[in-house]
Amino acid sequence: MLLDAQNVAKAFGSFWAVAGADLQVEEGEIIGLIGPNGAGKSTFFNCLAGDTLPTGGRILFNGVDLTRASPDAHARAGIGRTFQVPATFEDMSVIDNVTVGAFLRHPHRNDAREHARRIVEMTGLRPDQPGRSLGTPGRKRLGIARVLATEPRLLLLDESLAGLTPTELRDAIALVRRIHESGVTIVIVEHIMEVIMTLTRRVLVFNQGRVISSGTPEAVVKDEAVIEAYLGRGARRPPRIPPPHAGEG
Amino acid sequence: MKKFLSPRVGVCLLGAALLLFPMVFSSPFYRDIGVAFLLAAISASAWNIVGGYAGQVSVGHSMFFGLGAYTPLLFYTLWGWSPLAGIPAGILLSVALAVVIGLPTFRLSGHYFSMATIAVAELIRIFFGTWTLVGGAIGLQGPAVARGWWDLTFRGDLPYYYVFLAVLGLVLFVTYEVGRRRFGFYLRAIKASERAARSLGVPVRLTKLKALALSAAFSSAAGSLYAVKTGFIDPDSAFGILVSVQMVIVAALGGAGTLFGPLLGALILVPLQTAANTWFGGGGSGLTFIIYGGIIVLIARFEPGGLFDLWHRLAPRLRRRAHAA
Amino acid sequence: MVVLQVIVGGILLGAIYALFSSGLTLIWGMMNFINFAHGEFVMLSMYVALLVVLYLGGGPVGFGAAAALALFVLGVAIYLALIRHVVRGPMLSQILSTFGLALLLRYTAFFIFSANFVSLPQTSLAGTLNIGGIFLPVAQLVAGAVAITLTIALHLLLTRTTIGSRLLAVAEDRSAAMLMGIRPDRMQALAWGLSAGAAGIAGALLATAYPWSPSVGETFGLIAFVTVALGGFGSVLGSLYAGLIIGLIQAVSAFWLGAIYKDIVVYGLFVALLWLRPQGLMGKA
C-alpha cells in the first residue's frame, strides 16, 4: 500500500474540519475525492501533504510515518501536491519555476535544468515565458509541471482543472492521464464531474469531515447518501409540488 | 541604429573602470569617495543576499557590521595583535549571531524577523556602550602607526581602495555563483512563495539560515574593512541605525535581489551623500535621514524592485520608440 | 518603601505602554502587519500636545482630545496613501514602508524640534500625592488610570460592539466579511485610525507626566514590539497585562541595575520571547 491514512482528524478550535477520514491508496491507482464545499476535502489534502498538522490519526507513506512531518519532508518522501490557487514564482521564468522542483532529485544545475526542460516540453509550456505573464490556465499547468519535476510517487491534485475552457480541459485531462501512465499514483480533488468520471476508477465522497461513500464513479453518483449530501435532505424523493390554491401565496 | 552591449562586455568595462578610477582621479577627495563607494557597495551586496534574494528584510544588519568592526580593533587593543587576526573572529561571531536570531524567527512570519533585527541591533549597541572591555561609549582605536603591512594602517587611500575592490569582487562573485546554483533558486523561490517552495521540497528554514549566515559573514567583513580604514570605532558608528539603513537603501534603490543593484545604488547615493555633506555641513546628517526615509517610502510604495526593475520595465518601451523614430 | 514606589511608578507607566501597544496589536490582528512607525506616532502626539498648549492654551482634556484626533486622522491618511498599496505586495515593500515612514517622521521631528528634551508647562495635574508613604506625581497617577481605562474600553469596543465585530470579521476572513456587506477597506482604515488614536492619547498622557525628545519614538516603538510579543500578537487584553508587566520590569531593572540597563533587559526579554514563546501570553503567532 502506497498511502495509508487512518482516522485522520483536524480540529480548528471546536470545529472538526476533518473528523476521522480514511484513505488507502495502492500504487498505480487514480482516485477521486469529491464532496460539497466545506466538506473538509482541502483540509484533508493539506494533512496528507503536510501543510496542516493533523489533530489525530496516522498517515503512512510507503511504510514511513509522515503524520507530523513538514511539507518539504513529504515532498522528499515522494508526495507532491498542487494548490487550488497556484502560487507561481512570479519573478521567475517558466523553466526556472520548474527547475526549482527539479532540484529536489537533481542537485546539480545542469541535470536539473535538463530535467525541467523535458517536463516543460511535455506540458506544452513555453520555457522562457515570465511566470507573471501567465494566465490562470497557464499557471495551473505550471503548478503541475513544477511538482512533476520533483518526481513524486503520489501526486495530490487540488482542483487543478477548474476554470478551464472545454478545449483546455480536454488537454488537461489528457495530461493527467499521461502522468498517470508514466507511473505516478494520483489522488484528485475535483468538482468537475467529467474529470472524475473519465479519469478515476475509484471515488471517495466527503461530507462534514468524513468519508460517506466510496466506490466506482458510476456507483457513487447514484448513492443516496451522496445525493443527500449534495442536495440536502429530502432530495431523495422528488420535491412535492403543492396543489394550486393551497393557501395564501 | 541600435547598439548592442552584451552583459559580459558591460561587466568587463565596469571592472576596468573600477580598477582605473583611482589612477585617473588621483586626488585624495576622489579616492575617498571611491573607497566610500566600495564600502557601501560591499555592505549593500552583503545585505542583498538575505534581504534581496531571499526576501528576509533585516533592518538591523549593523549588528553584523559592528561585530566585524570591533573585533580587529579589540584584538589590537587587548593583545597588540594585528587587526587582521580579528577579521575571522568577527565573521565567526556574526555567523553565530545570525543563527541565534534566525533559528526562532524563521519559523514565524517575516515581520518577526525584521522586528528581531531592530531589537537585537539596538540591544548590542546599548550593551557595547556600557561594556568597558570594548571601550564603552568611547570605543576603540586601531594602530596609529603601522608596524608592518599586516596592521593594515596605510597612508593614503590607494591600498585601501584595491583591498576593498578585491572584497567587492569576491562578494559579487559569490552572489553570482549562488544565484546560478540550487541555493540561489531556492532563495528566490522562498522569496516568491514559501508555501509553494516547501511543497517542492525546499528546506525553507535551513535555506534562510544559510542565507543569513552568508550575509552576516560578508557584512562582518565590510565592518572590519571600515574599522581598519578609519582606525576607530564606537557603538554608534558600528551598530547605529544609520549603518543598517544605508545597507538597505543602497541595495533597495538599485534593485534588491539583482546582482548589480547594490552597486548602482551606491553609485547614486554615495556621491549624493558626499555632496549633501559638503553643502549642508554637519547638520546634513539629520537631513540625510529625512531624505533616506522619504526615498525608502517611495521605493516601497512605487518601485520595490528598485531602479533596475524600473529600467527593465521602461527599456522595451524606449526601444520601441527608438525603432519607430 | 522606595521599592514600592518604584513598582507603582513602573506599573503606571506600563499602563500607558499597554495603551499604545494595544494599537499596534490591533493592526497585527487585523492585517498581519507591523507598523514600524508606531513609536513615532506616540512621539508626534506628544509634540501635538505641546503645540496645542503653547499656541492654543488648554488643559489636559483639550490637548488630549486634539492629539487623539490628529493622530486618528494621520492613521487613516497613512493607511489610504501608503499601507493599503503595500499590504498585498512583497515583504520588502511592507517592511520598508513603515520603516521608512518611521525615519521620515523621527528625523523631521529632530529637524523641527531639535534633540533637546522638552516637557509640558505646568498643567492642572501638577503636584504630588502621598499615598501610604509613596509619593506619586498626580500626572502619573491620572495618566496611568486613564490609560488602563481606555485600553479596557478598546478591548470592549472590539469584542462587544457591532463595529468591533465588523473589524474582527475582516481580520478573520476578508472575503467572508465582504460577502456580509462589510467593506474591508473601510474597516482597515478605521483600524489604522484607532491604532494611531490610541498612540495619540497615550502620547498626550505621557506628555503630562514625563519629558521627551524625538528620540523617544524609537524607544517606544521597541517597547511596543516587546509588549505585543509578550501579550500575544492580536490580543488587546494581552497588551494590557503585558504592558503593566513590562513597565514593572523596566522600573525594577532601572532600580537594581541602573538606568542604562533598563532597556537592555526589556529588549533582551523580547529576544527571549521570540526564542521561547512567540505566541506570547494570550495571542496567536
What would a concise description of this structure say?
The complex is a heterotrimer of chains A (249), B (325) and C (285). Chain A has 249 residues and is of the alpha/beta class.
Description:
The complex is a heterotrimer of chains A (249), B (325) and C (285). Chain A has helices spanning 41-49, 71-77, 94-102, 109-123, 136-148, 166-181, 193-199, 217-222, 224-231; strands spanning 3-12, 15-25, 30-34, 56-61, 64-65, 79-81, 154-158, 185-189, 202-207, 210-215. Chain A is α/β, with parallel strands linked by helices and 249 residues long. Chain A has a domain at 3-89 and 153-231: Rossmann fold. In chain A, helix 3 (94-102) packs across helix 4 (109-123). Chain B is mostly helical and 325 residues long. Chain B has one domain (30-141, 155-324). Chain B has a two-stranded antiparallel ribbon. The longest helix of chain B has 27 residues, at 204-230. The N and C termini of chain B lie close together (10 Å). Chain C has one domain (2-113, 136-276): ABC transporter involved in vitamin B12 uptake, BtuC (Orthogonal Bundle), CATH 1.10.3470. Helix content of chain C is 77%, strand content 3%. With 285 residues, chain C is mainly alpha-helical. Classes of the chains: A alpha/beta (249), B mainly alpha (325), C mainly alpha (285). Chains in contact: A-B, B-C. The A-B interface holds A 49, 51, 70-72, 75-76, 80-81, 83, 87-92, 96, 99-101, 103-104, 107-109, 112, 146-147, 149-150 and B 180-182, 185-186, 188-189, 191-193, 195-204, 257.
CATH level 4 superfamily of the domain at 3-89 and 153-231 in chain A: P-loop containing nucleotide triphosphate hydrolases
Any low-confidence stretches of chain A, pLDDT <50, length ≥5? 245-249
Through-space gap between termini of chain A: 59 Å
Shape of chain A: globular
**Under the CATH scheme, which class of the domain at 3-89 and 153-231 in chain A?**
Alpha Beta
Q: Give the end-to-end Cα distance of chain B, rounded to a whole number of Å.
A: 10 Å
* Chain pair forming the biggest interface: B-C, 48 and 47 residues
Task: Give, in spatial order, the strands making up the sheet with the most strands of chain A.
Answer: 6-7-8-3-9-10
CA radius of gyration of chain A is 20 Å
Can you summarize the main beta sheet of chain B? Answer: 2 strands, antiparallel
**What oligomeric state do the depicted chains represent?**
heterotrimer
Rg measurement of chain B, Å: 20 Å
Q: What is the count of structural domains of chain B?
A: 1
Morphology call of chain B: globular
Number of helices of chain B: 14
* Proportion of residues in helical segments of chain A: 25-40%
Structural class, from helix and strand content of chain B?
mainly alpha
Q: Low-confidence runs of chain B (pLDDT<50, min 5 residues)? A: none
CATH topology of the domain at 3-89 and 153-231 in chain A: Rossmann fold
**Mean pLDDT over all positions of chain A:** 86
The tally of strands of chain A reads: 10
